[in-house]
Structure formats: structure tokens, C-alpha cells
Amino acid sequence: MQKNQKIRLLFCVLFIVFLLLQPYQIYLTNAATEDGSWSSPYSVSQAMNNQNNSIKTIQGYVVGQPISTSTVITSNFPNNYALALADSPTETNTANMIYVQIPSSFRSAYGLNSNPSLMGKKLKVTGTLTAYFSHVGLKNSSAFELQEGQTTNPKPEPQPDPAPSTSGYYDAAYGKTGEALKTALHNIIDDHTELSYSNVWDALRVTDENPSNSSNVILFYTGRSQGKYANGAGVDDWNREHVWAKSHGDFGTSMGAGTDLHHLRPTDASVNSSRGNLDFDNGGREHAEAAGNYYDSDSWEPRDQVKGDVARMLFYMAVRYEGDSGEPDLELNHLVNNGSQPYHGKLSVLLQWHREDPVDDFERQRNELIYSQYQHNRNPFIDHPEWASAIWE
Hints:
By secondary structure, this protein is of the alpha+beta class. It has helices spanning 2-35, 44-48, 104-110, 178-189, 199-207, 269-275, 307-320, 347-356, 361-374, 380-383, 386-392, and strands at residues 55-68, 71-73, 82-86, 97-101, 122-129, 137-146, 209-210, 213-218, 225-227, 238-242, 264-268, 279-280, 285-286, 294-295, 299-301, 331-332, 343-344.
């Protein structure tokens, strides 16, 4: 009987010790989960199945750069803003990849434009498990580490021109930053062929042609495919939208800023009317006719697919029009409600959109058409997206 009592007492003591240790064990488990350093890195497949906004370290092979929800490129990388990881170095299916946003402090060492030799190498990244490019992703990364003792091989300046037809075009800009870069780019793109406002109709039928239907153009804010000749002032017609609102500087439709194809797009007439001369910012109510576009009394937020396009068109205008030769001096600022002043905002938001919606093939083709067939100048921020941060950040 005495022996049984001792055994029962021992079990009671052990049970109490177990209960006392539980909170500490929970703390250890949570700590390891929260900072990602006390547990093994997630594989890419594990990270894809845990898009829960937690902070985690993941490990995978660099397989390319995402430029849209469903497209990852493996060469001719346009910038250093993102990369894709997979569990296999030969993976080609985007459904098996995670898209990693690269913060500015890591771009020179881990961006593929500067480090194409990273392709196929194993990388460990710590960040927030959340969607990027509307795809499973990792954002706000705080640490990058190349595995297996491999090192990056940064590509030296100057970077090559992005298209063979522009060889030497940007030579005067390489190696510059800030105002010096802005001035150099202005001098490169300043003098170009100017169109009349009536000729803009025919030009937009070419520059904004639907790649899947040569009889149509793609309307900018709605994304709707519409007949090339269904243009005019009717409610459902398309008309010529000045992305840099023509009242911001009061240049109207005069040749030059008023007819510059680099910021003119075909747009549903009534949606164009709603946008008016609003500055650009996040928020507002969704437009009834243009899903994904939001607006309020002082700003317009375009759909996600063209946010970066808007930013790069406004970057171009702020560099191209500097007040010489009797032209307006257009500048970007951090405000809305700019009215008739020669300013457009909101710069901080435009830079964010530029990062989150990278250059796509439609933009590149449009830029090439304007250069080769119409104005014979280019938008530098489509060819070299990294120059936006070099000037304004």
C-alpha cells in the first residue's frame, strides 16, 4: 500500500512539473515561428501553402523575374525589383513558384538586372508571406542569403540599352543620379517629332492595338477591347485621355505636351470624364463602369494592371517638359488638388505603383512604336525602370 502511494505521488509531481513547463514550451514555439530563426526554412511549396502574413524564412532556387501574375522571364531582366523562387532550379511553371519583392537596399546585390548570374542558385530570404503581383509571394524582406558559399556577380555600369534599335541612345545618362540624371535624360528625349491633335487618333490605333484583335484597341482604364474606329464623344465611344491632365500646366491640346503620345491613351469617354483632371492616389469609391478603378473628390486610382504605366508616363512628362523652348515646366509633387498648376501627384504613390506594377510587353511594344514610327523619342522609365528611384528617391 505504501509503495502504491509513492508511485501515485511521483506521478503527481511529474504532472505538476509538466504543467509548469507548458507556458515556456509555448513561448519557445511561438518565438521560433515569429522570427523564423529557430526553425528550419520553409521550402517554396510550404511557403505557398502558408500565405498568412507571417514572417518566415524560405529557401529555394532563383528561376527568373516575375513581370506579371502569370509571367516570369529568364533573361533580359528589366530591373532589380523582384525574383521568383522554386524548389527546383529548372522549374518553368509559375504555379510552382513564389514571387519575392526585393526592397531597395537589397536590389544591387540580389536583383537579376544587376546579377543575372543568380539564375539557378539557391537563396534564403526572410520576409512576410503575402501575395505579390496577385500571386503567392514574399514581401517586405529583411534578409537575403546566398546558400552553399556562392557569391553574386554584379553587372558593372553602364548597363546596356534594352533594345538593339537604341544602341547608344542613353550613353549620356549612364553613371548619373538625381538632377544630373534628370537633365541628361531631358536632353536625350527633348527634341522629337510632334503630332497634331487630329493625328493622335490614327497613332493611338497603332500604339494601343489589341495584340489579340488587330481591329480593336485596348481602353486604358477599363481594359475593354473596342473597335479602332469607335471613337468620338459618345458615352461608349473612346477618346484621347491625357494621363498628365492637360489642365495641370494649362497646355491644352497644343502640339507638344498636349499631343505627346507617351502620355495619351484611348479611354472610354464617360470614364475619361469621371477621371477629369484628378491627381493620382489610392482610395475612393469604385467606378461603376470601370471595375478596379477608384476615385474621390481629389484623386483617381487606376486598376492594378496599369498603375505602373501611369507612373512611368508621368515620370516621362516631368523629365521631357522642363520649361525650355516656351514649353511648360512640369513637375511631380507629393500633393493632390494641384488644379491648373504645372504639378502632378502624388509622387510617393506613383513610385509605389511603379515598383508594384513593373514594365510589361505591351508597354515595351508601345514605346518602340512611338520611337520608330511617330515621335522618335523614348520613355526612359520603360527602358530603365531603375532611373525613377535614382531621380526621385
